Amino acid sequence: MLSEILQLKFIGSFILGMLTPFGAVCVLPLYPGYLSYLATNLSKKKIVPHAIPKLGFLVALGIITFMSLFGLIFSTFLELSLSKIINIISPIAFTILFIISFLLVFNFDFSKLIPSFSGPIFSNPKLSAFFFGFFFGIIVLPCNPLFIALMFAKQSLVTDFLLNIIEFIFFGLGMSIPIIIFSILPQLKSKIVINGFVKYKNKINVVSGLIMMIISIYYLLFVFNILRLF
Length: 230
What we know:
Blueprint: H1 2-22, H2 31-43, H3 51-82, H4 86-105, H5 125-134, H6 136-140, H7 145-155, H8 161-184, H9 187-199, H10 201-223
């Protein structure tokens, strides 16, 4: 029974991670061009066959590395500092999630609040691809804070050190899947798919916001029973 619950938690983190890049419409349109640019520099003259998929896997490796490291830091802080006040932190986390959900339903543009951040460029395209993935969480945050906020809210419910780290790793694995898919697909097809997400950005925001709003309300009312405070 316990193992099944853990599997569901890990699968949930993986799905959240996978949904995160799809909602980041201010980053996705730049992604194919960014990889093409790196691949062109890699070949110096023309795009090397299979260069883009290889760079895409390096981006994925950077994402997983960042989320693993971030999970280690977050879990250490959570275990040392928050274990005694977890009942205070968790409601706050889900309240923030509710606010973000509410704003997204009305198509609030979070990127206006936070300065844009582009991928780092090094003389070595492979290194650029890895660090683009490493900082992908920072890049995505202004564009799609909803699923990341849910991940943090979910993590605030548990102070198990190893479990939290594993969940962050699964979140990173999920974030890397769309990146790998866009890298493997022919560039034209990946642009068509990405343009589709951009076209329906508002509808995606509304649907995602409503779902997360329901989740946050459920936790606030039935798990934490915040009405008792009033």
